[in-house]
Write a structure and sequence with these properties.
This protein is α+β, with helices and mostly antiparallel strands. It has a domain of about 35 residues. Helices cover about 10% and strands about 15% of the residues. It contains 1 helix and 4 strands, in the order H-E-E-E-E. Strands 1-2 form a two-stranded antiparallel sheet. Strands 3-4 form a two-stranded antiparallel sheet.
């Protein structure tokens, strides 16, 4: 069965509940091979390496 609220929540109470639903900036780190900014634990889009190993070949 689903939730069925008996009373209406006010706009202030609704907005207090949603106060922490904000966007956060993505964490960026420097690539260990080329020094470009990248998302951690992902393949670098600039040089195609991960953990100092070439994973994908990038045409320059």
């Amino acid at each position: 069965m689903s939730i069925c609220p008996k009373n209406k929540h006010s706009k202030a109470r609704r907005d207090k509940h949603r106060a922490h639903w904000k966007m956060t900036a993505p964490a960026l780190v420097k690539c260990s091979k080329c020094g470009a900014l990248m998302v951690p634990h992902r393949v670098c889009k600039k040089c195609g390496s991960y953990n100092k190993r070439e994973i994908i070949a990038v045409a320059e």
